[in-house]
Amino acid sequence: MNDRQDDQRDGNAAARALVAGVCAGDRRALARAITLVESTRPEDAAVAEAVVEALLPYAGNGLRIAVSGAPGAGKSIFIEAFGLHLVQQGHRVAVLAIDPSSPRSGGAILGDKTRMDRLARDERAFIRPTPSAGTLGGVALATGEAITLVEAAGFDRVLVETVGVGQSETAAADLTDMFLLLVAPGSGDELQGVKRGIVELADLIVVTKGDGDLKPAAGRVAADYHAALGLMRGAVPGWTPRVERCSAFTGEGIPRIADAIEAFRAATAGWRDRLRAEQARRGLDRALADAIDRALGADARLAGLRAALEAEVASGRRGPRAAARALVAGLLDRDASGSA
Questions:
Q1: Which of 6, 45, 46, 63 could serve as a FRET partner for 211 with CA atoms 20 to 30 Å apart?
Q2: What is the pLDDT of residues 265-297, one digit of tens each?
Q3: How many CB atoms lie within 10 A of CB 278?
Q4: Residue 156 phi/psi, 5° resolution?
Q5: Which of 146, 201, 138 is CA-nearest to residue 171?
Q6: pLDDT above 70 covers what percent of the chain?
Q7: Is residue 307 located within the same domain as residue 202?
Q8: Whole-angstrom distance, CA of residue 153 vs CA of residue 164
């Protein structure tokens, strides 16, 4: 048996052990499996793919909720209060908190987990900070696979916290069933502070910090957003977007938000299957783009061709579309030569 066969055998054994651990609810196995799917090391790819493929039949039963909001909206404190309410209602909660990446190591800064200390200590919850690694859309590239893993481990409520909010912070909606937009009062013109496009994505707008001196302002902001939603068409058939107020500090409004989410789940049961099928197709597009990018970087000749084409595009000697076509032609030539 050669070294390649030995590596394949070891990889298969590792994948089987991780799959068994995740299905048994082993938190360490779950953490290791997520680390594996986040890995950019080529030698980890085959094992990661085997783990995800094996766990797909055990996933899909959770409700996936994106939580977005501008910096200062109170995403982490809201998620902790909401998550604690959910576990008290008998749910198991997974939080995939997409952290900004360290510019030096590329790792997650890990601030969210420290801000959810009480939820992190609850055995019915699992919090995973994940580095965004520069990925646009407010979510990490491997977030979709991480959702599969936590659902297979038995978590039936999956909260995906995005990095922030803006024109590029909408990819979380393409991975989840429901989109929550958090808005804080007292920050000036709140309706102008959040782009219209992301408001149109929201299935539920939550006005946070509705206590103390900010309580009257929270009421006004909620009324403004309620009026604004009346001018927009809902994104989900059978569901009219709502506005709720809450205080994560006092807990006021958290049960109403949970009730609204359950109403959404009940009203959209049939639509959710179609949504996920379409999301899976778009996931293939993202994975294909990533695989092509990695292939271009792994081949010295293609990496050189790419650098040369980038220089031509930057200097205005070649258009981006023509350069991309030349790169694809180079990739196909390489594959044709390798299979000959």
A1: 63
A2: 999 998 999 999 999 998 888 888 888 888 888
A3: 11
A4: -100, -5
A5: 138
A6: 82
A7: no
A8: 27
Alpha-helix residue ranges (DSSP H) falling in the chain? 3-23, 27-38, 42-55, 75-88, 111-115, 117-120, 143-152, 190-193, 196-201, 215-229, 254-267, 269-298, 300-315, 320-339
Q: What is the mean pLDDT of residues 59-68?
A: 94
Please tell me whether residues 248 and 171 are part of one structural domain. Answer: yes
Whole-number pLDDT of residue 6? 53
Question: Which pLDDT value is given to residue 340?
Answer: 41
Q: Domain range holding 312?
A: 278-339
Structure tokens belonging to residue 150: 């936590």
Could you write out the three-class secondary structure of 103-171?
CCCCCECCHHHHHCHHHHCCCCEEEEEEECCCCCCCCCCCHHHHHHHHHHCCCCEEEEECCCCCCCCCH
Are residues 64 and 10 both part of a single domain?
A: no
Predicted confidence band at 206 (pLDDT cuts at 50, 70, 90)?
very high
Identify the three-state secondary structure at position 180: strand
pTM of the model: 0.85
Same domain assignment for residues 206 and 318: no
Number of domain units in the chain: 3
Token pair listed for 265: 């789940």
Do residues 242 and 108 touch, judged by C-beta distance below 8 A? Answer: no
In whole angstroms, how far apart are CA 129 and each of 106, 117, 245?
A: 13, 13, 27
Tell me: do 169 and 223 sit in the same domain.
yes
